[in-house]
Amino acid sequence: MLSKGLHVDRVFLFLDGHIRVQRTTAQGDQIILLHIAPGQVFGIGAALGHKGYPDPEMAAEDCVVLAWPNRLWPEFVARYDGFASQSYAVVGERLNDMHAVIVEMATKQVEQRLVAALLRLIPQMGRKVDDGIDLEFPITRQNISDMTGSALLTVSRLLSAWEKDRIVVSQRKKISATAPHRLSCGVVWPADATTSKVDLQMSG
Amino acid sequence: MLSKGLHVDRVFLFLDGHIRVQRTTAQGDQIILLHIAPGQVFGIGAALGHKGYPDPEMAAEDCVVLAWPNRLWPEFVARYDGFASQSYAVVGERLNDMHAVIVEMATKQVEQRLVAALLRLIPQMGRKVDDGIDLEFPITRQNISDMTGSALLTVSRLLSAWEKDRIVVSQRKKISATAPHRLSCGVVWPADATTSKVDLQMSG
DNA sequence: GGGGCTCTTTGATCTGCCGCAACAAACGGG
DNA sequence: CCCGTTTGTTGCGGCAGATCAAAGAGCCCC
């Protein structure tokens, strides 16, 4: 499924498929940081110029992408107006998503994080079918636990419970939300009800 | 200490002081997302064009900053070459930091997250003194728990334990690392030993 | 088809750490 | 100086959820 070792010295425009970006710690824990939707650019990190960080390994199969070397990035930015703003909008959005993830991880319990993860996946890679919404991307409970910073077994238990309550249906590597609204309504917190604050103080 | 309500419709270049960027959930939990060092730009998110997200509240005191309206951003980028690349480098670095935080929150236990948080603060706002390193920024145990997604009481307990082991010294709102190396060596994981991977797959 | 693989489920146990409660200490203001 | 407020400390009980163990189910490939 994966062909590793593709060096990231270029920027990609992602046309079709689904991409998972993950990290592996020295202990072997895998964390899924984000999913990339068709139409987005990725590999921006390197293009933005942060060097000295671990080179991401790449794994690819059957994906339709446009690729160009990093060094052309500034030229593209200079030449095409919409290109830069659109790309940076993606980055801004991603920053915001990661803020949300951090807040979740810090304050919500596992079940709520799981709900949040599914609700984030649904608009990105869900397909509407007659009895709910299918996630088109094969996803294991292990994957989900890697997204939420929880344990595989806990994810399995929660999904089983939800399936008993007719909220989701799942087979092997496959999840469908039959009652997505009940996912969110079972939980008490408003989706976007976070505020941000910047707290400044002089040193010395 | 804080004067709230300053609307973020501009980008700032931060000259002196220390800034904390935090979020408050609907439940009142506060999470400190990052600290901004002098010389960095902030408020970039809005400039990057993500709209529809909660407007950050601002709180300021005694800080030295340069500010200009968001709409001038593209012009600045076009006019000054180094400006854009430097600013985006900051963004890239921040993306990477947040990746690291997410991985930590997902895989490490509280004590290790605490160590990581301190080790991240030390180079940013530590001042070398004869018997170790002082954090120049007043910081409470509540603040630290907000950074690590843990409980105030747990932080207090851990710091007490470390103080018994002569690793840190702390008074009220003040922390000094007397043996910073022992902070990291007590823990088993190599600092930057994460690798990244991108996992692609076709839909359907 | 069958062997081996990956993925999933369920029960039982164990533990990190959260939260309560109560107190101590440091600060700040009048 | 006294008193209210904020911050830090410590002990203890409880619980969410990680972990162990073991078996069942779906998939691929020879």
Describe what this molecule looks like in 3D.
- 2 copies of one chain form a homodimer.
- Chain A is globular and about 55 Å long.
- In chain A, helix 2 (73-79) crosses helix 3 (81-107), helix 4 crosses helix 5 (141-148) and helix 5 packs across helix 6 (152-164).
- The longest helix of chain A has 27 residues, at 81-107.
- Chain A has 2 domains: 10-106, Jelly Rolls (Sandwich), CATH 2.60.120; 110-185, Sandwich (Jelly Rolls), CATH 2.60.120.
- Helix content of chain A is 40%, strand content 27%.
- Chain A is built from 7 helices and 11 strands.
- The first copy, chain A, starts with 9 loop residues before the first strand and ends with a strand.
- The relative contact order of chain A is 0.12.
- In chain A, strands 7-8-10-9 form a 4-stranded antiparallel sheet. A 3-stranded antiparallel sheet of chain A has the order 4-1-6.
- By secondary structure, chain A is α+β, with helices and mostly antiparallel strands.
- At the A-B interface, strand 2, strand 5, helix 3 and strand 11 of A face strand 2, helix 1, strand 5, helix 3 and strand 11 of B.
- Strand 2 of chain A pairs antiparallel with strand 11 of chain B, so a sheet runs across the interface.
- The structure holds a DNA duplex (30 and 30 nucleotides).
